Amino acid sequence: MDMLLSKLDIKHSQRIHELRLEGKTYKEIGLEIGVSDSYARMILKCHEALIIRPKQWTEGLPIRMKSALLYAGFKSKWEVTQVASLSPECLKSCFGIGPQGFKTIQEWCKSS
Length: 112
Description:
This protein is mainly alpha-helical. The protein has two domains: 2-52; 63-110, no CATH class. 71% of the residues lie in helices and 0% in strands. It has helices spanning 2-7, 10-21, 26-33, 37-52, 63-71, 77-86, 88-92, 98-110. Helix 2 (10-21) crosses helix 4 (37-52), helix 3 (26-33) packs across helix 4 and helix 6 (77-86) packs across helix 8 (98-110). The longest helix has 16 residues, at 37-52. The two termini are 26 Å apart.
């Protein structure tokens, strides 16, 4: 779904959202926008997922580093930041991180 969300025309999806809030059916929305009712429904679901989706604490990290931190049992950015500053060797030794991954995580920890 993220891949589809990144390709959506945001104004288009916002308009579909507005029309739905006005009580229009997917068929009516599709006719107005010029798409099928099922496509209008899919765009709305993606739009809502983008709006509702909570920000994950690993956001901003490459998927490999996200996976490594989750596999190692970390639960928050704060926790990772503490271990990175107090015990960097411990973090570097986690499965899938290594020295280069550690540099990536250090930069991520510095970002807000």
